[in-house]
Amino acid sequence: MPLSSTASCKWRWREQSGDLMFTLEESARIGESEPRWAAAARKESADSFLARALPSEREESWRYTMIDNFNINKFTSSRASVKSQSRFVMAMEDALKQKKELLDTFMKEKNPGLDKFDYLNSAFWTSGYFVHIPENTDASLIEITLQSGISRNFIIMEANSSAEILEHITGGSGLNSNFTEVHAPKDAKVTVHSLHDAADDVSEFSYKRAYIGRNSSVNWNVGQFGGSLNRIKVDNFFVGEGAHSRTVGVFSGAGKQHMDLSTNAFHSVPNTSSNIIVKGALKGSASEVYRGVIKIEKTAPGTSSYLSDHAIMLGENAVANSIPSLMIDNSEVQCSHSASAGQVDEEKMIYMMSRGLSREQAETMIVEGFYVPVINAIPSIAVREKMTDMIRKRMLS
Questions:
Q1: What is the pLDDT of residue 79?
Q2: N or C: which end of the chain has fewer CB within 10 A?
Q3: For residue 1, what are the CA distances in angstroms to 82, 86, 133, 143, 373?
Q4: Is it the case that residue 110 has pLDDT exceeding 50?
Q5: Any idea what DSSP says for residue 60?
């Protein structure tokens, strides 16, 4: 059945008492109809949200992303909505009731290092999607459109299942947060294409998180394009032997946009593998910071993990920062990284212009050629075309 859910919300709080007052403009508060355990989890997250200060640029995970003057105390989310035609998709509001046992298990997992924005999402989400692929099922391509807001999304893969999921996050206004979590406990394969193209005035703080079990693979293709401030964090936890992930990150920034992308690969069991490739271009006064962490525990011999990130800048005012980090506690592994950032090669420009191209035409060819290897690594033709269109919109218009 087609899925369509909408909600628009405003909230405010009293810091002294810790009371949280939540008012929905279009529907009753989601929490009032949730199971007790889910409502309790929301309240716990709200308490943690209130107790934590805003992250500071002095924190390593927030270097180069300045939010010291960010007024989080007065904001309104945009109207959130989720639409899909797939029979494997239902609204999170419905899943809390109909898939209680599954969600009861997976939503209880906690991770260290949660900051105020993590808790904002888990406390205030009002919409989202739930995907459950049964055992021995190939779901093929599932398309989901999210009107950017505050959404919480779960993908649960049973044994010997497979799926390709395209989530397109678009539009919105104000402060948004979109959280997608994948669980693939055993012998499952899923690729998530996540295209972020929020409206120009959106400040977005979004998360991707995967728990990858024995002989499972979770692949991410993340496109970071819209919003005035766009921060995306991708965490992969390798929890079963034979687990694998390939993460591709593509970003394009223009004007005064600021992009913040983090990828984290946490290897804690033997014989797992990860490949991370990030590429992007900036023009105008756009800025970007990429952080890539590979952490290999003592308990993870046989790990193979690779990280690569590259950025080009069109113009003197664009700024790109790269912060790769390898934390290796086992000598029986393969792990490496490469990184580069720089202006478009002027010699290449002059050479191409000497062949009859205008400067604009030469720049267009260089930018498109820069993206080609990473775009072509995405198997889905439809996703490649969508990403290419978004790159042209941002970089070549």
A1: 64
A2: C
A3: 13, 7, 16, 13, 38
A4: yes
A5: G
Task: Please tell me which residue, 43 or 356, carries the higher pLDDT value.
Answer: 356
* DSSP of 13-55: E-TTT--EEEEESSS--GGGGS-HHHHHHHHHHHHHHHHSPPP
Residues 6+ apart with CB under 8 A from 383: 166, 193, 195, 221
- Give the model's pLDDT for residue 201: 86
Structure-block tokens of residue 212: 């990858």
Look up residue 293 and give its two tokens: 């962490």
Asked if residue 16 has pLDDT above 60, the reply is no
Asked if the model's pLDDT at residue 72 lies above 80, the reply is: no
Ordered alpha helix ranges (H), the chain: 36-51, 92-98, 100-106, 116-124, 346-354, 359-376, 381-395
Domain boundaries, the chain: 3-344
Residue 251 host element (H or E): strand 244-253
Q: Which amino acid is at 215?
A: N
Supply the DSSP string of 194-205, one letter for each residue: EEEEE-TT-EEE
Q: Decide if 378 contacts 248 (C-beta within 8 A).
A: yes
Residue with tokens 């034979």: 242
Backbone angles phi, psi at 158, to 5 degrees: -85, 175
Token couple for 8 = 């628009």
Across-strand partners of 208?
A: 180, 234
What number of other Cβ atoms are within 10 A of residue 235's Cβ?
18
- Which phi and psi (to 5°) does residue 395 adopt? -100, -25
Question: Residue 169 pairs with which residues in a beta bridge?
Answer: 146, 196
Amino acid of residue 53: A
CB 265 within 8 A of CB 277: no
pLDDT band at 26 (very low <50, low <70, confident <90, very high): very low
* pLDDT 10s digits, 197-225: 998 888 999 999 999 999 999 999 999 99
CA torsion 326-330-333-337 (nearest 10°) is 10
Output the CA–CA distances (angstroms, integers) from residue 360 to 355, 356, 357, 363, 396, in the order listed. 13, 12, 8, 5, 9
Contact in structure between 322 and 290 (CB atoms under 8 Å): yes
CA atoms within 13 A on the CB side of 232: 29
392: burial class by Cβ within 10 Å (0-12, 13-18, 19+)? middle
Using alpha carbons only, give the angle 234, 240, 244 rounded to the nearest 5 degrees: 50
